[in-house]
Design a protein that fits this description.
Elements: H1 12-25, H2 29-38, H3 42-49, H4 59-70, E1 72-76, H5 84-87, E2 95-100, E3 109-113, H6 120-135, E4 139-142, H7 148-158, E5 163-166, H8 180-189, E6 191-194, H9 207-217, E7 220-223, H10 231-241, E8 245-248, H11 259-266, E9 270-271, H12 275-282, H13 302-313, E10 316-317, H14 318-325, H15 329-341, E11 345-347, E12 352-355
Parallel strand pairs: 3-4, 3-7, 4-5, 5-6, 7-8, 8-9
Antiparallel strand pairs: 1-2, 2-6, 10-12, 11-12
Helix pairs in contact: 1-3, 1-4, 6-7, 9-10, 13-15
Length: 359
C-alpha cells in the first residue's frame, strides 16, 4: 500500500481522529485544506476549528468496525500516498475512503464522462476509448453512473485494466444501486473512492463535489456525450478551472446528447475524432490493435434475451421490468448492462428502457 494509508483494523486511534475530522469538515473542504496545510494533525485541526467535540462521538468506534468489515482503507490528506493531483486542490478532501487499491489513484489517468442515457454511438466511443487506454496502462476514471460512465468502467475491466470510480455517497452505499456488482468488480483491481462519511446518502448537491475529484484525478477529461446542463459539463468546467486538458467528442447538430460536447468544442476544447487524439494529448504511443472487448457482449445471455423480448413489446422502466422478469436486482442489472454495452437498448429521458434500431 502507498505510504500513509490507514487500515481501520490496525490503526484505530488514527482512523478515529480522521473520521472525526471528516465528519466535521467534509462539506467544508476549503477550511479543512487550510487547517491541514498549517498542521497535518487531525486532532490539532479540530481544536483549531473549535470542533474538538467531534473526537468524542460515540459512533467513531462503530464506524471503524464498519470500514473494517467493508475492507476499506483510509487515506488522509497529509499521507505520502495521497494523490498529488487531488492534494493541489484548494478544496482537497481531508479524507478519502477507498474500497480496493489506493495505488490505483497514483497512476496516469484519463477521465471519461458522459450522458446517462447515451446513444449507441456514444457507448461505442466510450467503450473503445476506455479499452485502448486501459491496455496502455492508463487508469480510466469516471463516476459509476449509468450510461457512458458504466461503459467506460466495464470496458477497462474487460481488457484487464484499472479503473477508478468516484462516488457521491458513503462507502457503505452504491449509487445507482444496480451498479453494486460493478462497484465490486472495480474494487477487486482498481478503486471505488469517496470523500463522504459512512451512511451518507447520494444527495443531489454531493454530485458536483464528486465531479471535481473526477476532473482533478484525470490528466485529461473526455466528454463523450451530455446535455448542456449535465454532470458531464460540470466535470468539464471544473477541469478547465483546475487547468486540466478537456477533450470532447463531436456530435450531430441538434442532437440533445451532443449539446454539451459541441459547446465545449466551440469554447476551445480539443476534438476527439479518433482514439489516437487522446493518446497524442497524453504524449503516449497508441497501443497495437487488439480484439474489441465488446465481442463478449454480442451474444445475449438467456436472461438478456428474455429482457430484450419484453422491451420489444413495450418500453418500460427498470422497476416495471424487475416485476415482469422476477429475478434478483443484481442479475437484472447484469443483463441490462450486457444489452447496453452491446448497443441493443438505451434509457429514454423519462426513464424508460427501449430497444434500439433493429436489435
Amino acid at each position: 500500500m502507498p505510504l500513509g494509508v490507514l487500515d481501520p483494523r490496525d490503526d484505530r486511534e488514527e482512523v478515529r481522529a480522521w473520521l472525526a475530522l471528516q465528519s466535521a469538515l467534509h462539506l467544508d473542504p476549503v477550511s479543512a485544506t487550510e487547517l491541514l496545510q498549517h498542521s497535518p494533525d487531525p486532532v490539532a485541526a479540530l481544536h483549531a476549528r473549535g470542533e474538538a467535540r467531534a473526537l468524542r462521538e460515540q459512533s467513531l468506534e462503530a464506524r471503524c468496525d464498519t470500514l473494517a468489515k467493508l475492507g476499506a482503507s483510509v487515506l488522509p490528506f497529509p499521507a505520502p500516498g495521497y494523490p498529488e493531483r487531488l492534494r493541489v486542490l484548494s478544496d482537497a478532501p481531508p479524507v478519502l475512503l477507498v474500497l480496493g487499491s489506493p495505488e490505483a489513484l497514483l497512476g496516469r489517468a484519463v477521465a471519461i464522462v458522459g450522458a446517462r442515457a447515451p446513444t449507441v454511438y456514444g457507448l461505442r466511443v466510450a467503450r473503445d476509448l476506455a479499452a485502448a487506454l486501459a491496455r496502455a496502462g492508463v487508469v480510466v476514471v469516471s463516476g459509476l453512473a449509468r450510461g457512458i460512465d458504466a461503459a467506460a468502467h466495464q470496458a477497462a475491466l474487460d481488457v484487464g485494466g484499472l479503473t477508478v470510480a468516484f462516488s457521491a455517497c458513503g462507502p457503505d452505499r452504491t449509487y445507482p444501486a444496480e451498479h453494486a456488482w460493478l462497484a465490486d468488480q472495480i474494487s477487486r483491481s482498481g478503486a471505488v473512492v469517496t470523500e463522504m462519511p459512512l451512511e451518507t446518502p447520494p444527495l443531489a448537491h454531493y454530485f458536483p463535489l464528486r465531479n471535481r475529484l473526477i476532473a482533478a484525478l484525470g490528466e485529461v477529461v473526455v466528454v463523450v456525450e451530455g446535455r448542456l446542463r449535465s454532470g458531464s459539463l460540470v466535470t468539464a468546467r471544473r477541469a478547465i478551472d483546475q487547468g486540466r486538458d478537456v477533450m470532447a467528442v463531436p456530435g450531430p447538430i441538434g442532437a440533445p446528447t451532443s449539446e454539451g460536447p459541441n459547446s465545449l468544442l466551440r469554447d476551445g476544447a480539443a476534438p476527439v475524432t479518433r482514439i489516437a487524439d487522446v493518446f497524442e494529448m497524453l504524449d503516449l504511443p497508441l497501443p497495437a490493435a487488439a480484439p474489441d472487448a465488446r465481442a463478449k457482449h454480442e451474444a445475449a445471455s438467456p436472461l438478456a434475451a428474455r429482457v430484450l423480448a419484453i422491451l420489444r413489446r413495450e418500453p418500460c422502466t427498470r422497476d416495471a421490468l424487475r416485476l415482469r422478469v422476477d429475478v434478483p436486482a443484481g442479475r437484472l442489472a447484469l443483463a441490462l448492462t450486457e444489452l447496453e454495452l452491446a448497443g441493443r437498448i438505451a434509457t429514454d429521458r423519462d426513464g424508460c428502457l427501449r430497444v434500439l434500431g433493429g436489435a
